[in-house]
Amino acid sequence: MKLCRFQNSASEARVGQIIDESTVTDLSAEGIDSITELLEDSDLISRMEALTDSPTLPLDDVEILTPVEKQEIWAAGVTYLRSKKARMEESDFSANAYDQVYDAARPEIFFKSLPEKVVGPNKFIGIRADSRWNVPEPELVLVINSKKELIGVSIGNDMSSRDIEGENLLYLPQAKVYDKSCAIGPYVVVGNNEEEIRQWTIGVEISRQDEVVFSGEISIDNIKRTFSGLIDYLGRSQSFPHGAMLLTGTGVVPDDDFTLAEKDVVSIRISGIGTLQNTVTIL
Questions:
Q1: pLDDT, tens only, 137-157
Q2: Where are the domains of the chain?
Q3: Which of 86, 124, 154, 246 yields a CA-CA distance of 20 to 30 A from 115?
Q4: What proportion of the chain, given as a percentage, has pLDDT over 70?
Q5: Architecture of domain 72-282 in this structure
Q6: Within the chain, what is the greatest distance between any pair of CA atoms?
Q7: What are phi and psi of 170, to 5 degrees?
Q8: In the 8-state DSSP scheme, what is residue 104?
Q9: Using a CB cutoff of 8 Å and minimum separation of 24, what contacts does 237-242 make?
Q10: CA distance 30 to 8
């Protein structure tokens, strides 16, 4: 079941359910004004199944927005073996730290974005003007309610300035947290358990002047840590009154000689969700 936020022809933000590749139902016509309201409902699936009279709209007539409302955005790092190797390759100075965290009981978890700074589908994502080595990081997003329960999943892009992080691991916030550094969407998929989600694949394709300059794909089952384990550590000594979204790390990393350029188009696809596409701009 795919939930979304969208803007209609009257420029109103609405909540919807994707029926197929061409149709969305307007759940706001049923009095549902917030996707968070649905994510907080302990009987979400039954509630959705009872909504049978929602009007429908062609997807081409609406603009899909990020599903983020007031949720905090966090991210986990070094959860795939490929990510560990890439982070170690960035810098001899930081290599030992990344090697240790991959095998440690406690995961690397860091704050990624304020909700109002998250970019939605088909919007610009940013690369820093003071960085020379920038990459997208295609990631599965765990959607968590205020009770710290896994409610659904989405697609995320954890943009990263690899040269800044590689210079010193203490620079990670500057490499990861800036305007337009996080995209999430287009949908939140609910009703699947971890075993099912781990059968999906996640991939990225980067196009430059209509030519594909990088592509890659990996199974989500390559995430070393369990979803429940990541949520457990995220929630320790923390409260999330509006819920949270946790990016779970990347297993698809371009070669070291690749960097994003202005106007590149980044398309991230998760087989059970859909595609999140954004265009690069320089900040």
A1: 999 999 999 999 999 999 999
A2: 2-65, 72-282
A3: 86
A4: 95
A5: Alpha-Beta Complex (3.90)
A6: 60
A7: -70, -10
A8: S
A9: 239/146, 240/71, 240/72, 240/144, 240/146, 240/148, 241/146, 242/36, 242/69, 242/70, 242/71, 242/72, 242/115, 242/146
A10: 15
